[in-house]
Design brief:
There is one protein chain. The protein is of the alpha/beta class and 312 residues long. The chain has 10 helices and 10 strands. The strands form 4 sheets. It has a 4-stranded parallel beta sheet, sandwiched between helices. A two-stranded antiparallel sheet has the order 5-6.
């Protein structure tokens, strides 16, 4: 009996060990990203991989001050993803101090950036490329390609995740195109706390204005504030927005001086916590779009407004 049991069990054990060895001996990749939106993209493609974000939810990457913990996390990473386009001015110093020698992937490679005029630096790229879903398709292709190179055995897995997420992005992009198409062009004006939505505006035909530039570290000039107040009054704008990462005092000041309503908080450079409406990129963009449409509809005469919800 023992002889026959052995004949049966030995091949079974061998097969089990062969198919189970990778799970037992290969720890998951440890990936570091610079901010929460990029972390979400990598999680969508990598799924079970350990993905860390240096700058967390509701936090501002423009003004972030790295910590010793960040140095340790980077030193232990298998792969690092950054946004690039000048968004994380601190990242290369941080990587150098950590001693990390591995691959650094710039997720915006291949994107044609919008150029803006910075008073202190001249013409520079706008780093907020993720606010155009067409650009996000490039982000996730770069992520899929990089993960497949460092972990080729899992390339089909990454490919499926990439294709699934691409379909979701295309559905959301089409929803936004159709929803904003219902708003007359002259009413497509939105005021936010800082100039983070240029790519969104270019893609969907919306004009965004803000008291400060593309960095939250900028300070508004009295002339810029006065100009915004003139725009609000001239266009009868009814709602303005604060962002989850910005100083709310500027928007509160505009509200007090014009009597304009402050809308729900929107998300620009960071995701929200899980119990808030911007905890993933898809949720963030959908929430922002809903709020923008609500504000633009308030500007319309009643006969121009449709009774349907923004989800219609």
């Amino acid at each position: 009996m023992n002889y026959y049991c052995c004949r049966f069990l030995i091949p079974f054990v061998l097969v089990a060990s062969i198919f189970g060895c990778r799970a037992d001996t290969s720890p998951p990749l440890k990936i570091v990203t610079t901010f929460s939106i990029l972390q979400d993209f990598v999680r969508e493609i990598g799924k079970d991989k350990v993905v860390i974000s240096i700058v967390g939810p509701n936090s501002d990457a423009h003004t972030y001050q790295p910590t010793p913990r960040d140095v340790r996390q980077i030193a232990q990473a298998d792969l690092i993803f950054i946004n690039g386009l000048g968004f994380e001015g601190w990242i290369h110093r941080l990587i150098k101090s950590s001693g990390y020698k591995g691959k650094i992937v710039t997720a915006t490679d291949g994107i044609q950036p919008m150029m803006i005029n910075d008073p202190g630096e001249g013409e520079v790229p706008d780093p907020h490329a993720w606010n155009d879903i067409k650009n996000v398709k490039i982000y996730i292709k770069n992520i899929y390609t990089s993960l497949s190179k460092i972990d080729p055995e899992q390339a089909p897995f990454y490919r499926k995740n990439y294709e699934d997420y691409l379909a979701k992005l295309e559905d959301l992009d089409q929803f936004i195109v159709n929803a904003i198409k219902e708003i007359p062009q002259k009413k497509r004006i939105i005021i936010t706390a800082h100039d983070a939505f240029g790519y969104y505006g270019q893609r969907y035909g919306v004009k965004f204005l803000a008291p400060v530039g593309t960095s939250t570290a900028d300070e508004p000039s009295p002339k810029a504030m006065a100009s915004l107040i003139d725009v609000i009054r001239a266009h009868k704008i009814k709602m303005i927005f604060v962002e989850n990462i910005t100083n709310k005092k500027l928007i509160q000041q505009l509200s007090e001086e014009t009597g304009i309503q402050i809308g729900e908080e929107i998300f620009s450079d960071a995701l929200s916590e899980k119990d808030q409406p911007g905890s993933t990129y898809l949720a963030m963009i959908r929430h922002n779009t809903d709020q923008f449409i609500k504000a633009m509809r308030l500007m319309q005469p009643k006969e121009e407004c449709r009774s349907s919800s923004v989800y219609a």
